[in-house]
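Hi V.,

Quick status before I head out on leave. The structure for the redesign project is tokenized and pasted below; the design run finished overnight.
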């Protein structure tokens, strides 16, 4: 049974930091590209960051470059998103995604609220 579970969201002040975690199981984690997406109220879901199956490449949406860092730990089946210098516009539900072999697995999301 495939499971993708996000954690680490919460309320943070502008300029603060949060670390999101994603625990995956039920598939060969090390063979899948892992990504973080987000969806703000009234907006479409957007790709925030992605990382290759072996961690050999990463990519980011322009709005988070230099502030967010995606990483993965293949032996632990975990992927992380370190978010620094958070802004109000980063407020969204953040989703973890696993993609590979024509399949796409999603978690249920974790809410990040950036507000004073």
């Amino acid at each position: 049974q495939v499971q993708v579970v996000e954690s680490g969201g919460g309320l943070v002040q502008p300029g603060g930091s949060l670390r999101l975690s994603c625990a995956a199981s039920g598939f060969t984690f090390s063979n899948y590209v892992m990504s973080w997406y987000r969806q703000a109220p009234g907006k479409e879901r957007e790709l925030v960051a992605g990382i290759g199956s072996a961690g050999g490449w990463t990519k980011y949406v322009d709005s988070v470059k230099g502030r967010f860092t995606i990483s993965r730990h293949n032996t632990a089946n975990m992927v992380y998103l370190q978010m620094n210098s958070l802004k109000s516009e980063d407020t969204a539900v953040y989703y973890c995604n696993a993609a590979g072999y024509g399949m796409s697995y999603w978690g249920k999301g974790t809410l990040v609220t950036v507000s004073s």
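Above is the designed sequence. The chain has a mean pLDDT of 97.

G. will cover questions while I'm gone.

Best,
W.
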